[in-house]
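Next comes one such specimen:
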Amino acid sequence: MDDSLNSSSAETPTVQQDTFDLAAFLKDLTTRPGVYRMIDAQGVVMYVGKAKNLKKRVSSYFQKTHASPRTAHMVERIVRVDVTPTRTEAEALLLENNLIKSLNPRYNILFRDDKSYPYLRITNHKYPRVAYYRGAVDKRSQFFGPFPNAWAVKESIQVLQRVFLLRTCEDTVFAHRSRPCLQAQIQRCSAPCVGHISPEDYARDVAAASRFLRGDHRSVLAELEEKMLEASALLEFEKAAVYRNQISALSRVLQKQSVDTTGGDDDADIVAVVVKGGAVCVNLAMVRGGRHLGDKPLFPSVVQASEDVGPEVLEAFLSQAYVDRPIPSLLIVNQDLDAPELMMALSEQAGKKITLIRQPQSERRKWLDMAVDNAMIALERRLAEQGSAQFRTRALVELLGLESRLEEELQQQAVGLEIGVGGAASTGGAISTVDAAAVPEELASIDVLATLRVECFDISHTAGEATQASCVVFHNHDMQSREYRRYNIDGITPGDDYAAMRQAVTRRYQREGKAPIAMPHVVLIDGGKGQIEVVRQVFVELGLDVGLIVGVKKGENRKVGLETLVFPDGRPSLELGPGHPALMLIAQIRDEAHRFAITGMRAKRAKARQASALDEIEGIGAKRKQKLLSRFGGLRGVKAASIEDLLTVEGISKTLAEEIYRRLH
């Protein structure tokens, strides 16, 4: 057996229940830490887990009793188990998280958060700039965070502007100022760009701001008071007034904090898990330096979210949330969690001891109560939104007469086809004409309306340039961004929307030699009779049902609510009128297809015009970008250049050359 983290599949132990001796496999299984993958008959990974002891953990799945119906359903479908031993539990944690993100297993509790957490950045400059930042951190700047959301970062930046008068302008703007800007005039900046403050005094303000962000509020206030008294004693009353204003602004900021520690320097994450109505909310609140920075609700996908799933959801969150971002030394939770292996792995990964508190006291209790309350509010709001989404889905199903088709599909599943149990159960949307006795227990809980699948196509280009087609997917009462697809359209006359639509639809549904896809119940086409006729021809050529096609013809002035639905199979057109719930859902899907197409087209067009990652680097304006592209023959040449090569370009300093190299690699 391979000892490395990335052991080859030839060395990875496996078991197939129908052909292998399970008892012999478990007997020979290693007791080392590692990751295991449960695989079904189609070769699909259903579940990924980690273990301190692989033998003990994997064996527990094949006991006669299971902790939950979800586990029992999964075990019934297991035909193979792959395991990968690792050196440590921390390596197992990292590998598990990477596999969950890449494989998207059905039975794992998945947290989909496609955005990194934001930071507040103080740059390395003679007069440092304070800025909002997302991305990988480095040692050349000071980074504070992460923050739960962009609003928390921007609010903190405003505090630093009001109290410490730090600049926020980009370096290129700063270098070319000849007089104070508006921020200086409204007393939000000390105007270092025009020499209104010395480098030494500005550096002291930056140091005080750093201490404030780390929670050292008292020493910052004491220092400002001392400076104010000193300036007053020297009869420098204008300078004393500046310190007085800073003290006043800082005092107001601290008073606004709804929750603050009495001690002052705690760093903690508060994680509250709330389950209601078959849905789950995990609310993450952050406290840094004793300041409550706000919270962020997350809604994981959970199969069969029962009331007792809270500890499992909490463990999944801790496993996935802290792999690629810093973890504070203190975690405060509202669920009983018996996972010493996980806490040891997190501590090993962080290089420090991580303490988990279930029953906090004093101010920490207030933090947790607030997090729980906010989680409940967010969950109730989401459930209300889902109810509205189900109402719109039902309206569309009834409008297009799809009830019987959805019921037939459920009945086919009931008599032996592959059973899909993904998604939370719902009671408000189920179509009730199916014979309950003919439906297995796991199918009976499925919201039949949620099985409706709608795909929508749109074309976007600029006068024939950078033509792209989009295909977006609506399923389970929501847009499924992971299933979106873009198609680069080539080999057509520029501006020929009909040919572009033909190419996109053909590539989507022509499956010869390709893996099969789930066919939709409705194919929406954003366009007039021409586009709809082209799609009809493609469907006929591919042997598909033209009854799936629904054209969305824009109304007068392209106003939402005035669209006409056009059917190429001979059904009469429909004008539903403003406010119809089915039309509102169609407009939502159509607008998402348009957004997805146009953003892809703009990115493709920008690349073609050599607009690049250089545009996102501070200090690179139009002139420097042009010099770089000319010097190295394009963006590819710039990426291949070393720091020394970049320094040969006029106007590129060593600091800027290092930043360019870092951002492009």
